[in-house]
Amino acid sequence: xxxxxxxxxxxxxxxxxxxxxxxxxxxxxxxxxxxxxxxxxxxxxxxxxxxxxxxxxxxxxxxxxxxxxxxxxxxxxxxxxxxxxxxxxxxxxxxxxxxxxxxxxxxxxxxxxxxxxxxxxxxxxxxxxxxxxxxxxxxxxxxxxxxxxxxxxxxxxxxxxxxxxxxxxxxxxxxxxxxxxxxxxxxxxxxxxxxxxxxxxxxxxxxxxxxxxxxxxxxxxxxxxxxxxxxxxxxxxxxxxxxxxxxxxxxxxxxxxxxxxxxxxxxxxxxxxxxxxxxxxxxxxxxxxxxxxxxxxxxxxxxxxxxxxxxxxxxxxxxxxxxxxxxxxxxxxxxxxxxxxxxxxxxxxxxxxxxxxxxxxxxxxxxxxxxxxxxxxxxxxxxxxxxxxxxxxxxxxxxxxxxxxxxxxxxxxxxxxxxxxxxxxxxxxxxxxxxxxxxxxxxxxxxxxxxxxxxxxxxxxxxxxxxxxxxxxxxxxxxxxxxxxxxxxxxxxxxxx
Length: 497
Description:
Shape: globular
Radius of gyration: 22 Å
Oligomer: single chain
Structural class: mainly alpha
Helix content: over 70%
């Protein structure tokens, strides 16, 4: 890459990073200095903004870059993405609408607020909040890593990885600091469009270049040279784990709780399974790029860099730079949501409750802003010091937040669920996940395949939750009566508009 091309590539990406700064400044002027406005946009987010901010948050560096790597390494395993996108949409309909309803009725802002309402337990709420913070941080790390990879490759090494990650970190802080969730949602509309068309077009372009020769020749080559990459084979446990843990873990992340609370009308929840299922078409592009890489760069060492490497080698420079900017959008659209949501968890769940209960709404917003700065710095340090493939790190992070689904479903659908059961299940699930992840304990042979430990820890959570709930004192009559009264209104579709 010539010096002129390096400079032009950096200029294009800089332009895409400048746009959210402008949006953040405009959003900041419309903001009100309250925690409800800063963290859940006053519960007035419209349908278009909700869909794009959910989709853009759901798609990340994990999807845009990590997917290419996994299609290259594992073949059809990542086709789980089609199934888990649909499942994610179903979760948004079945559970998201109910969470939104209780959030609207009770002015909830964080996941902890939901558990305080349904279980009346400060301890359970704190465990949930801590899980949200600990396991969202590494997922934030991979967004910074993914964006930094893109800038490093795009500049031909002119901007090193550490500086590229720092630039991402600074841009996100500035516009989220200024406009809160409103700024995040506005930029996600812009990013969401880029993501969809960037992923699809990159795949269609690469698979049709002369060196690949089209989809048929691509698969003929892989079937002959890499037959293990056209079958799932022994990866069935990984497939099952990714199908369940990925959408559940993402759905239980604090950034999605925020989006459930912020929705203006319940009507969008009815459309989400269809909309997110349709959006999954974008993964066709990742499949084509990842499989084409078996022909174009079979010896590549850093597989997370497949997309920018292939584009700069085989696509026109301007097209490559534009699509790489779409990849930067993927990383930034998820990172902004995670930083913002983690800030809400700390500010509302810990600072307001335990450090200073007398702060004004304006002062709490400032606490949230400084929390954004601190958490982003932590993610940046992890980005530089904790190695690992994007998808691998992402799966472990999602397996952690997935544990929260068990007491959530219990709260909404099982009257016999108890606080003791929820706490015991969560602790067993998280501890077993850590033991499996760090190799302290080896899962049984059925779960010994890749990803099996993530699934087993989730199943252990469910088993312990059910057994302990059946053996312990039910939730108080006061809590159950309050929830039932609100459920009666829910099923009668009152207060839905």
